[in-house]
Amino acid sequence: MFLFLVVALAVVVAAVTLAVVGGGEGEGPLPEAAPERLQDPLPLDRPVGRADVDSLRFPLAARGYRMSDVDDALNRLGAELAERDARIADLESALAGAQAAAHHVTMDKPMHGREDQQ
Asked: Does pTM surpass 0.70?
């Protein structure tokens, strides 16, 4: 009886193995799946917005996320942030210059009412 159970178990294991592997004929029942790839999640035609970052989802890989996809997205976000920081610095500098020039003009303006009173 024990020998019959061992043989039956071996036959079941062999049948399951052949079903999964496919027996070597054609592609078999489990074809290889193409790995998921990130499909340009960030817009190229406009600056990245908060909604773009919120909707960003990376495809899962064997050990988490694909490093190249994450690196590409982080590099893009870093470049856009650096560009925005530079633009903000330029605008703040221009604003400070305009405010200084406006302050200088108001300080040098003569007072017309005082000349008539003397």
From this structure: no
